Amino acid sequence: MDLENLRARRLRAHRLSDPAPDVVSAARHLTATQAQEFWGGRWALAVRTAGEPTLREVDRAFDRGDLIRSWTQRGTVHIVDPRDLGWMLSVTSARQDRQAAGIHRSLEIDDHPLGRAERAARAALCGGNRLTRLEFAEVLVGAGVDTSGMRGNMILTALCRRGVIVLGPVVPREGAPTREQYLVAADEWIRDAATPVDPLAELLVRYLRAHGPAGLADFRWWAGLPLGLARAAREGAGERVSEIEEGIFVQAGTAGGSGVGAGAAASFDGLEVPALALGPFDEYYLSYADRTAICTPAQAAAIGPSANGAVKPVLIGSGGEVIGTWKHSLAVGRHHLDPVAELAPGGPGEASVAAALDRFARFLRG
Q: What's the superkingdom here (predicted)?
């Protein structure tokens, strides 16, 4: 598949050229939106939504319980529809636990402290209670659980993978946008959960719906699963998935989410796709094993993931390709400053990039 066609289809699949009607719909379409940087995950939803929703509007979806964050795959925190959390963890949690086992052993975290922490968390959060991370750590210490060093965070993420705790409503922050969420009890916060007949196959179909066209290696990387499970997902998905070229798949009946027949070509003809400012860890850039469809290897090395796991915010040109990076600080006293572009040579005009960054500024300040 030529790169222009691939990028056009992926832009549609990601709802970047075909925005969702509201923030919750955007999140449900993506299934899991990577969000180590909480502001970046919220912006990822806003930039995929019609009507330019503000940060406050996105936060209200968390406050209502329409969205949560949890460690759904690859040991990484994602924004998800609460109803999807249980079946997703049924596919990914065992793999995540095995990946965390080494550091758990080095920190002497085993079933005894985790069991004590779970009992303390359930007791503290029952009846609709909510805790900040600091308050949660105090609860654990009061129950005799050591939270020193990395232990507190590793215990928290383990309890999230067990489906005990989720990150829910936002915590107000004086003088700047919030960066924290309250911890709440998953069994009280999640309503109307349902499990697909084949959760593994469902995860592949959902991935292709929002990321296709893509290969099994891309799905394997995104879901954090071994190749054998990726192949089993393909087999289980059956006719719900179409192979449009050898090893390249979309959800059946779509061209990477475009609504065009699976065998039809998608292109930029007639598409109005202005420059886009995407946040750190954005799915459009990160959620593929091979990212060179939208950037050069040199650009990918500069963007990340870096040695410490960081991924820079990216600027996307009208053809769906990376044209540069940008930066912004949410620190108190700096969050009101304008974002700053770092353009690659030969990129589009400043006006197009400025308009993309202005949209982010309106999101943050609105």
A: Bacteria
Percent of the chain topping pLDDT 70: 91
pTM: 0.93
Write out the E strands in the chain. 33-34, 68-73, 76-80, 165-170, 181-185, 241-245, 248-251, 276-278, 314-316, 322-327, 340-343
Residue 17 scores a pLDDT above 90: yes
Asked whether residue 257 is domain-assigned, the answer is no
State the number of CA atoms in the 13 A half-sphere of 164 facing the CB: 18
pLDDT at residue 93 is higher than 80: yes
Calculate the dihedral angle through the C-alpha atoms of 214, 25, 77, 250, rounding to the nearest 10 degrees: -10
Kindly report, residue by residue over 36-79, the tens digit of the pLDDT: 999 999 999 999 999 999 999 999 999 999 999 999 999 999 99
For residue range 101-135, list pLDDT tens digits in order: 999 999 999 999 999 999 999 999 999 999 999 99
Residues 29, 134, single domain; the answer is yes
pLDDT of residue 178: 86
Strands 76-80 and 33-34: antiparallel
Same domain, 47 and 174: yes
Domain that holds residue 316: 276-365
Encoded tokens for 235: 């087999």
Domain count, the chain: 2
Res 141 pLDDT > 90: yes
What share of the chain in percent tops pLDDT 90? Answer: 82
- Residue that is written with structure tokens 């990395």 in the block: 150
Within a domain: 214? no
Domain boundary among 155, 189, 223: 189
DSSP state letters, 138-202: HHHHHTT---TTTHHHHHHHHHHHTTSEEEEEEPP-TTS----EEEEEHHHH--S----SSHHHH
Q: Is residue 262 part of a domain?
A: no
pLDDT of residue 247: 95
Query: Residue 222 domain-assigned?
Result: no
CA gap 97, 189 in Å, rounded: 23
Cβ partners under 8 Å of residue 98, min gap 6: none
